[in-house]
Task: structure prediction
Amino acid sequence: HLVAGPIVRYRHIQNELGSLDTDPNLFSFGMYRFLLGFNKKILLANMVVP
Result:
């Protein structure tokens, strides 16, 4: 249901959100991927736009 976006009511997905596991390794991997993509975007945007 999470892919449905903000249209889904909270009461329909609260059980799924309440059971999310947190893992520091997954968080650091996600931050790595985010920063890698962000840096690519900045570098490519600076090359395209004068």
About this structure: The longest helix spans residues 24-48.
